[in-house]
Each structure stands twice: as structure tokens, then as C-alpha cells.
Amino acid sequence: MSKPLIAVSTSRDDKFSAGARDFVRAVYVDALDRAGALAVLLPNHPTAEEALAYCHGLLLTGGGDYDPARYGQEPQGTHMASVNPARDEAEQRLIAAALNRDMPVFGICRGMQGLAIAGGGTLVQDVEDRMGIPRHRHAQQEGRSDRTHRVRLEADSALARLVGARDLEVNSFHHQAVDQLPSGYRLSARSDDGVVEAFEDPGHSFVVGVQWHPEDLAATDRSAQQLFQGFVDAARAYQESSQFMRG
Ligand SMILES: [Mn+2]
Fold it and tell me: For the whole model, what pTM was predicted?
């Protein structure tokens, strides 16, 4: 059996001097490699959906804010960061296509928020404006792999089974968060100030979203790498079943 192919969503940089470009940070690719998968970077382009059909899992990476119109709201406050309509559209198409064929999906930070939007959920546009939580608690100034707050995992969640723990110390680089979960989803972790930090969809084989950044911890942290491993294991099962189906 060949290695599973993981479609990786990319950030769009419209301001690059030589023209718009799509990119990911290398740590995502490293974490997938350690878990035994090949990363396939998908551009923010309508044809990305065709490329997804050759893959066995979808990794939704972090990035800027979704346009709140996607979840039926006007922009509130002054902290909206780098909304990119091309990326919003490309990723929402990828999510719909992946869920439609029950392909495993792992959403990180913005990726989790994209899953929420795709399922009809909503976001807290700014945790300080809305919840009175100091923004730096979740938009940390420390380094990418520094852990600055704790999350508590729900005892019977797939996430807790995956990492084999009830509490994790995590990094945190978000000023938004999931508000209303999509119907059918369940909460799998919160921080102690009440922010939704992870969820999962028991209606699919593997749909998990986390608000922190395990890709920045996974080189040295077993539980962070375990998230990628569980995702890649699910992708391998998807790969095997799809080969069986094709006969
Ligand atoms: Mn956080």
C-alpha cells in the first residue's frame, strides 16, 4: 500500500511583489511526514476540488479570519484580520467535497473555524470584545512552540482517546473562536475561561478541529504528533476502503 496522500489547504498572500502566491508553513508537512503520509499542497483555485479527489484526507491549516458574511454576520469590532475571499471560497468547497465522501478532515485554528462555518455554526469574532477575555490569553506573544494555556478534554471524546489525556498544555494564536457548534458536532475541549478549543463530528469517520497549533509542538510533543497520527491512520483506512470499492 502506498502512503496516504493528504491534501493541505494553503494560505493566500495577495501582497507578494511578484504576484499572488499560495503557501504553507513547513511544520505541517513535517508532522504529516512523521505520521507516514505525503502532503499535497492545494492551491486556492476552483480546480483544487478535482485534485482533492486523488487524496485520502484533508488538512485545513491556520490563517486569517473568515468573512463573517459566511456565517450570516456583519463585521463587529475592529480586530478582523486579513479576510481573503479566494481562500474562503476554495476551502469551503474543499470541506464540502471531503465531508460528502466521508474523507477524514483535520482542522487546525482557522481550519476548525472553517469546519464550523461549513456545518452551519458561527464564530466569536473577537474573544476580548465578546467574552471579555484578554486577547493575549489566546493570541499569545510567546514563541510558536511555547505552551501558554491549558485545555480540558471531554472524557468520552475521540480527541481524549486519541491523545490519551484529559488535560493538555497548548500554544494559542487566535483571537476568534467557535461559538455555535454545527448540529451533530460535539465539544471535545475547552479552555478554563470557556473558549471552545476542540470539537469533533461523530457522524463522520474522522472530523476533528482544534483551536491550538499542534504542528508547532509535534516535533517534540507526543500528544501533538498523536493528533496527526490518528488523522493519518484514518486517511489510510479511507485509502484502503476506497481501493477495495474500486476493486
Ligand atoms: Mn486558545
Answer: 0.97
